[in-house]
Design brief:
The chain has about 220 residues and is an alpha/beta fold. It has helices at about 15-25, 50-55, 70-80, 95-105, 155-165, 185-190, 200, 210-219; strands at about 5-10, 30-35, 65-70, 85-90, 110-115, 135, 170-175, 190-195. An 8-stranded parallel beta barrel has the order 1-2-3-4-5-6-7-8, surrounded by 5 helices. It starts with a strand and ends with a helix. Bound molecules: D-xylitol-5-phosphate (DX5) and zinc ion (ZN).
Length: about 220
């Protein structure tokens, strides 16, 4: 799978969020990653469907809503209506992922599943054939700019091998600390959708050269 670069706007300039989304599009990103935090599932608060809707018209790139919230079932449809294309919820947030997956499918969108660094691969195995993205967290969720956790790579490799063994067309997403020196090892461990936040938005002006450098480093 060629490397898909997903721009996380968590470290963008929120005073100009629409422009920042357009900047990622102009820079060659493949999708926009939207970190939704409820101050409960994680110790941070970001934004809700209203903000997603307000920036929807600034790009035709797919919106990947990463729901770091305790009640994804209650909000899935609202993020769908706001213009999200892929809605990723956490396996740790609901002990019945089936009903959340079904709610996202009923809303006409693709479901994705995220697992925290300490969550074993087993938590994702029952759902691999039901989701459009398996997001493997390489930081503890809640903040951008954290260091990449190398210790997650063996789990990522094992999941990639299992996906291949089953013959599934399911990309693994890598979220947290993805930079020029970590995107290569992440790709080698089976990562295909690379979420990049601070490494991208730390750059002023044109993002294209950063995007190109990250793609090259992914190999
Ligand atoms: C963290 C978020 C990530 C974060 C990535 O909880 O899920 O998407 O924004 O940012 P960087 O690339 O700076 O780690
Ligand atoms: Zn994220």
């Amino acid at each position: 799978m060629s490397t898909h670069l997903s721009a996380s706007v968590l470290n963008a300039d929120f005073a100009r969020l629409g422009d920042e989304v357009a900047r990622a599009d102009d820079g060659g990103a493949d999708s926009i990653h939207l970190d939704v935090m409820d101050g409960h599932f994680v110790d941070n608060l970001t934004f809700g469907p209203v903000v997603v809707e307000s920036i929807r018209s600034r790009t035709t790139l797919p919106f990947h809503a990463h729901l770091m919230i305790s009640n994804p079932l209650a909000y899935a449809e609202r993020f769908a209506d706001a213009g999200s294309d892929l809605i990723v919820f956490h396996a740790e947030a609901d002990d019945d992922p089936e009903r959340v997956i079904a709610a996202i499918e009923d809303a006409g969108k693709r479901p994705g599943l995220a697992i925290n660094p300490e969550t074993p691969a087993d938590a994702a195995l029952p759902w691999l054939d039901r989701i459009g993205l398996l997001l493997v967290m390489t930081v503890h969720p809640g903040w951008g700019g954290q260091p990449f956790m190398d210790e997650v790579l063996p789990k990522m490799r094992a999941l990639a091998d299992e996906i291949e063994r089953r013959g599934l067309d399911l990309p693994i997403g890598v979220d947290g600390g993805v930079k020029l020196d970590t995107i290569g090892p992440a790709a080698a461990a089976g990562g295909a959708v690379m979420v990049v936040g601070s490494a991208l938005y730390a750059t002023d002006g044109d993002l294209a050269s950063t995007v190109d450098a990250l793609r090259a480093a992914a190999g």
